[in-house]
Request: fold
Amino acid sequence: RTKLLKITDTHAIVERDGKTLELEYDCVINASGRISNDPSEFYGIVKDTVYVGDCERVGTLADAMNIA
Reply:
C-alpha cells in the first residue's frame, strides 16, 4: 500500500495513506511487479546500480536473495 514517487541520493519519496513521506536509505532494492523487464531501463537512476536475482526471468524477492 505504498507508492514510490522518487528516489534521491539520500531518500526515497513515497506516498502512503495519502501522505508523502521521505525515507532515508543506504541501499534500495527494487522488487516490484511480476513481469520480467529489460534491466537497462533502471541503469543510471542512481550512481551505483547493481543487478541481482531475476533480471532475466520472473521470480520473487526470496528468489533474488537466495544464495544457492
Q: What stands out?
A: The helical segments are 61-65. The radius of gyration is 13 Å. The first strand starts at residue 2 and ends at 7.
